[in-house]
UniProtKB/TrEMBL annotation:
SUPFAM superfamilies referenced in this protein's UniProt entry, alphabetically: PRTase-like
Name the record gives this protein: Uracil phosphoribosyltransferase
Gene3D superfamilies named among the record's database cross-references: 3.40.50.2020
CDD domains: PRTases_typeI (cd06223)
Swiss-Prot/TrEMBL keywords: Glycosyltransferase, Transferase
Sequence intervals crossing the membrane: none
Classification lineage: Bacteria, Pseudomonadati, Bacteroidota, Sphingobacteriia, Sphingobacteriales
Amino acid sequence: MFVLTEKNSIANHFLSEMRNIETQKDRMRFRRNMERLGEIFAYEISKTLVYKNCEIDTPLGVSPINIMKDQPVLATILRAGLPFHQGFLNYFDHASSAFVSSYRKVRKKGDFIIKTEYISSQDLNNKILIISDPMLATGRSMVSSCKELLGDYKIKEMHIATIIASQEGIAHVKANLPHARLWIGAIDEELTSKAYIVPGLGDAGDLAFGEKI
């Protein structure tokens, strides 16, 4: 498991603005900071991928360099994940994309279930999958989305990236997706009875795109 804020970097600044109740009023800045963190995660994940030697013709000769052997497939959970996903796409600009529409459906007794309405993906067999979602609260949405997306595919490897995660969410993902590698911006200890991360940052989807009705 990789935790970005365990070491000081410019990522701390972007995350602090995302958490700040005053800075959050600037919706465009909130989205941009999410995108920036996606770019940083993409760079960090790229270090773990397999590379091959290639020779590039320049105007003055030939330059040897190592390039990625396989492009990943980038997936995200609608709608909150879109700016985060764009950050990954900015760096893995030859990658394909996949999308999952999942949401919490609250029941009368106060708990909730995860409903998946829509999946758009290509063949994932033998592919590297990077799935991103800005918040990992209970982890149930992530696990459900990954299982729906993967179906009967046999992927090469899976990376899960999130900006803020709870300890409970991390434990749930590890228990249900043991082969996935977790990439986390920051870990918060508390999870409320309504499954909101504290201190967290609020509802990432609402802050990025406006409150839903």
